[in-house]
Design a protein that fits this description.
heterodimer; A: MetI-like fold; B: Rossmann fold; 6-stranded mixed sheet; 4-stranded antiparallel sheet; 24% strand; globular
Chain lengths: 321, 269
Amino acid sequence: MVSAVFHSPLEAAPAARGGDKAKARDAGPAPSAPTHNMTNPTSTPSAAQAVAPDTPARAPWDASFLWLAVLPPLLGLGLLALVWELVFMGTGGSIPSPKDTLMQAVQIFSDPFYSKGPNDQGVGWNVLSSLKRVAMGFGMAAVIGIPVGFMIGRFNFLSRMFNPLISLLRPVSPLAWLPIGLLVFKGANPAAIWTIFICSIWPMIINTAVGVQRVPQDYMNVARVLNLSEWKIVTKILFPAVLPYMLTGVRLAVGTAWLVIVAAEMLTGGVGIGFWVWDEWNNLNVKNIIIAIFVIGIVGLVLEFALIKLATAFTFEEVKN
Amino acid sequence: MTSFTTKYIEIQGVAQTFKTRKGPFRALQNINLTVAKGEFVALIGHSGCGKSTLLNLIAGLTTPTEGSLLCANREIAGPGPERAVVFQNHSLLPWLTCFENVYLAVERVFSATENKAQLKARTDAALAMVGLTAAAQKRPGEISGGMKQRVGIARALSMEPKVLLLDEPFGALDALTRAKLQDELLQIVATTQSTVVMVTHDVDEAVLLSDRIVMMTNGPSATIGEVLKVELPRPRSRVALAEDIRYLGYRKAVIDFLYTRQGHVEKAA
């Protein structure tokens, strides 16, 4: 069973509010740390409190803030650049240096939306068409998976009926379904969407079902004592109680979908970030491959972060657990 | 129908057995009890003696393995709003405000006969009765334990139930808050003339609030050990009763039962 609990380094990290955009952009897996205390670096603690009396809980500016929130992520990125530079020197230049890649990236991102035929389009178009495939496959998976999850969670019979099927099919790599998709849909694009659909549907079914099964008995007792209608039970008790689990399923599904789309597009071709990687490999343009890896990583990070924010907004004290 | 007011709730030969991994567990047996209309009955006993099990049976949340339960001459077939329950852990829905939590109950019972403004007025009145008008728009996560329990009581009372079932409603509260809520409950019950069955493990609470105290033997296979009639005049005052010789006598009787005759909890468990 997929764990339906939020576990992510992002969750614990405070959101960046206001302040220095350059720093916020640098922030890697542990983003942000509020930077607005930095605006008054020379002030003494008492002066800082006088300047910002509306943030009494926050510790006054000191070295430990810099030490823990800003320095480690920067050091991490620095380490990455260092290893990369060493690899560049060790391989005699077949892997491009960070500096060259950065310059290439600036050039690529200066015109992300050009289009010179189906096989040569800007990085913006490639990312957008990948996102579109993910959205379509994922959307269909949500439309089918969430109701199915509700049914499986609510009725023990269905749960026993579908559990063996899900257990059998879930571990299969989504790419194994690609030939079936090609055969049935007779096209690369629908086959890629089909693959996304298959890989997104399992986490959504399983998490929704687990959520329904874990609705606290207390709430159901309230429903029974008040003799609520089935509609009220679903809207006032089941749905709000299951929502956090469901959103976890959505988050897992989107994460997997984003992993799978790159591989699927490498196989199917067309326009898309995965195809772009493969195309640049055929052109032996390693700089662009590395840029694509960063783009894939950043888009995945943004998707994950947005969904975690969404999930915490709908999670209430008692069900957080 | 002559017996209607003296036998409002009738429990006849009830036994309850739970299936567990170690085999059947007999929680209750041979329970016979009647509660008159407007009577306040406390169920007291050591933890694990099946007090809450008995209350759940009256609420209709569980069905007995043997025997029958009647309320107003009808068999209790399932839970319903005419027998409102105040749960031990308040059981408020965390995504609704206090107002919405109460409104859910009010709407269920009265929406057929009353308009929205009346339903809203009922909800406001119920919250005002427990002194929570100011917190109406807060979520359960934002208020204290005592306030949550009050919302639970307001929700139960707002339905104008025939029977009010309280499952250790003040068990998780500190002594001062508990005393305050007990006094409020005394007043509310005096005004509404409700029939109340309350589970408690607090001797003072039982003597102060109830007309009869039902003392239960230790589980497993718990049953009613003794029933004590509390004949103290109402309205009762906590302060005046503290030195009342009859009050002390009732208190002594309950303590005697709980600690002298049913003192071996650990051995039984």
